[in-house]
Amino acid sequence: MATSINSTSNTNSSSTSKSDNGFAIIASTYNGVADGTISSFYAICFDAVTDTGVRRNADITSYAVEDGVEVSDHVQIRNNQLTLTGVISESPVKRYGSILDSLANGGRVKAAIQYLDKIFDARQPIRVVTEHKSFDNIVLTGISYNYKTEDAMSVDLTFEQVRMVNSATANVSNIAAKTVSTKNRGGTVKTQKKSTQQLSPASVSNGNTGA
Prior knowledge:
By secondary structure, the chain is mainly β. It has a domain at about 20-60 and about 75-160: Beta Barrel (Elongation Factor Tu (Ef-tu), domain 3). It is built from three helices and eleven strands; from the N terminus they run αβαβββββαβββββ. A hairpin with a 6-residue loop joins strand 10 (about 175-180) and strand 11. It starts with 17 loop residues before the first helix and ends in a 17-residue tail after the last strand.
């Protein structure tokens, strides 16, 4: 599936192996894509999320724009930024099927730290699911955690969303630029010389196939 310019869609969720599909952080299970993300991705669910912030910015030219010119051509949208504060507890009230749910009490906080460190060190885009929106191609840019009690940890995370573009290919005509000298001016000019190739009858196709 082609990805459009400035797209932030994630297309790596086709494998049946969660680890192959990549990482995901679930900030809210009330989002309709949360269950599918937990089942398809190597996902972690916070027991509680106390704060979620989204920041969108754009840069606009400081120069005067000519009348009649599209103003949008002079505005550059910057990467979306996301902040999240979540809590991991050793005694969760509810389990959602994430990687922490299989751990016995006493190892959830440690596993969460290792999981987040793994995401950070991998430097790869992940998925972040909030209550109202799912963010794909998100890169974890910062981790800060504090121990609230012996049985719980609060984590502050910062993210930046990468905008994806498509590469394109084009056919180039078989024209070579050749530099020749000019005697009357003592300089050089570039002229275009078309390269021709004689084809045998067997190598020429008329678009028909078969007998």
